[in-house]
Design goal:
The structure holds two protein chains of two kinds. Chain A has helices spanning 16-32, 58-69, 90-98, 114-121, 137-150, 169-180, 210-214, 238-245, 249-252, 275-279, 285-307; strands at residues 47-52, 73-78, 104-109, 125-131, 158-162, 184-188, 204-206, 219-222, 260-262. By secondary structure, chain A is α/β, with parallel strands linked by helices. Chain A has two domains: 11-135 and 292-307, Rossmann fold (3-Layer(aba) Sandwich); 137-288, 3-Layer(aba) Sandwich (Rossmann fold). In chain A, the strands form two sheets. A five-stranded parallel sheet of chain A has the order 7-6-5-8-9. Chain B is α/β, with parallel strands linked by helices. Chain B has a single domain (9-71, 82-149), classed as Rossmann fold. In chain B, 26% of the residues lie in helices and 30% in strands. Chain B contains three helices and eight strands. In chain B, strands 3-2-4-5-6 form a five-stranded parallel sheet. In chain B, strands 1-8-7 form a three-stranded antiparallel sheet. Chain B is globular, with a radius of gyration of 16 Å. The chains are: A alpha/beta, B alpha/beta. The A-B interface holds A 1-2, 21, 24-25, 28-29, 31-32, 35-37, 39-43, 45-46, 301-302, 304-306, 308-309 and B 69-70, 74-77, 80-84, 113-114, 117-119.
């Protein structure tokens, strides 16, 4: 198998078999993190620039560790200490960094579409590490990897995605990705935080209550209220959100006995999900983080690897 | 164009010779593990393992390495990564590294590098069924089955599965 594209910008650009190729590769890379010497020489001599315009703990650490475990040289541009604060535009920043001959950019940006713009102006591989309210393709891959470690097949599983769907790039990527695997997706959240785009998809339903969304669910993906993206008042108060949209132990009984709970992080503990569930064995949140490294190693390996012929 | 170089009985007796050599030169077989290089070395390693078990009643541990991530050629995704399977600690073990054909020596270099990332073995010895010459690195097998001359545009194909064991020389187009 191979992957013919230069970049990873949207999960929509990947076929199901592309996704399986990334996941099979990730499965092998997962083993490297379990060895005493957690490093292979595969990407030696390759330079990867991490360009994060937004705060990030998991994604940034995960990409950086993935680069280090593959022996790539990684460089982190801290935007708050960069020339961006002096007024340099994104494209100028990228063109200047491009002159330093990097092999890949990993881009996180508050504007939807920014990684796509970067991919158009650079010859280097560009990986979307989350753009605005658009997409987060590597999160989708690691979510699917985590689900497949717990469920034999995603086809016809009931997946409930609950919370601030509108502002969630994870929800978008997960929906696009999971649909390719044949999941039945139920969305639920405050009416103001449910986007219009979902209405066109056949296997995506909008539930009318927490109970409908959770009933017999196999997989529950909880999302965070993204206060930083809310310039308008989408919800009356966090207190009210808690009482209507928090996943509690009582609600978990509606889901299937073997249902698993995912959350892309960061979690607002006891706002969208009770601490009790996070600490229980139903939660695979930390497995998602573990798989994140393997998925990002696979992305770097596949994308940089298929490039070398032409460089 | 294919030329059959070796067949069943000859291959069997060559492998017996290699096993005999291993038994004679490694005194502490109890502390020895056999590691095949994926793909061609897998069946060869299995045969060595079986031979030692039959002759000495010692069940050596058996593992496999896939050296894709340790290659030295201009990096390119050529194939899917297969699993390295070393379900035991190799520290202070004698390792018999097995591959069907040795050519440039680069695969062996990569496999040794990978093994050393798993621990510090007491020794690594190399067993190959066919040495086709053409070494590009200073690597020399400890146990060689047969030397077969082959030019750059020829490939050596080894089949060890089932009863139809063959070694063939194939002229590349």
């Amino acid at each position: 198998m191979s992957y013919g594209k230069k970049d990873l910008i949207s999960i929509r650009d990947l076929t199901k078999s592309d996704m399986l190729y990334f996941l099979e590769t990730a499965k092998e890379f997962k083993k490297i993190s379990l060895k005493d010497i957690k490093k292979v020489p595969t990407l030696r001599g390759k330079t990867v620039i991490n360009l994060f315009y937004e705060p990030s703990t998991r994604t940034k650490a995960s990409f950086e560790i993935a680069q280090k475990r593959l022996s790539a040289d990684s460089l982190n541009i801290v935007i708050s200490q960069s020339s961006v604060t002096k007024g340099e535009t994104l494209s100028d920043t990228v063109l200047n960094l491009e002159s330093m001959k990097p092999d890949a950019f990993v881009v996180r940006h508050y504007d939807s579409g920014a990684p796509y713009l970067v991919s158009r102006i650079t010859n280097a591989v560009t990986i979307n590490a989350g753009d605005g309210i658009n997409e987060h393709p590597t999160q989708c891959l690691l979510d699917i990897m985590t689900i497949l470690e717990n469920k034999k097949d995603i086809n016809s599983l009931k997946v409930a995605i609950i919370g601030d769907i509108y502002h969630s790039r994870v929800a978008r990527s997960d929906i696009y990705g999971l649909l390719k695997f044949g999941a039945n997706i139920y969305l639920y959240g405050p009416y103001t935080l449910l986007p219009k785009f979902i209405e066109v998809e056949n296997n995506v339903k909008v539930a009318k209550s927490m109970e409908e969304a959770l009933k017999d669910a196999d997989v529950i993906i909880m999302l965070r209220i993204q206060k930083e993206r809310m310039s308008l008042n989408f919800i009356p108060s966090i207190e009210e959100y808690r009482s209507f949209f928090k996943l509690t132990k009582d609600l978990m009984f509606l889901a299937r006995k073997d249902a698993i709970v995912l959350h892309p992080g960061p979690v607002n503990r006891d706002t969208e999900i009770s601490g009790e569930i996070m600490n229980s064995n139903r939660s695979v949140i930390l497995k998602q983080v573990e798989n994140g490294i393997a998925v990002r190693m696979a992305c770097l390996y596949i994308l940089l690897g298929s490039r070398s012929k032409t460089i | 164009m294919k030329t059959v170089v070796l067949t069943n009985d000859t291959i069997d007796s060559i492998i017996e010779g290699i096993i005999d050599g291993i038994i004679r030169s490694i005194p502490d077989l109890d502390n020895t593990v056999i590691v095949g290089i994926k793909g061609g070395g897998v069946l060869f390693a299995n045969l060595i393992h079986k031979g030692i078990k039959n002759l000495r009643n010692i069940d050596c541990q058996l593992g496999y390495v896939d050296m894709t991530l340790y290659r030295d050629d201009p990096f390119m995704v050529k194939k899917n990564i297969k699993s390295t399977e070393l379900p035991f600690d190799i520290t202070d073990k004698n390792i018999i590294l097995a591959d069907d054909v040795i050519y440039s020596g680069r695969t062996i270099r990569a496999a040794i590098d990978e093994l050393l990332d798993f621990g510090r073995p007491k020794s690594i010895k190399l067993a190959v069924l066919i040495d086709r010459g053409g070494r590009e690195l200073p690597i020399c097998p400890d146990f060689t089955g047969r030397k077969v001359r082959a030019s750059e545009n020829e490939e050596i194909e080894v089949t060890l599965s089932g009863k139809n064991k063959t070694v063939e020389k194939i002229l590349k187009k």
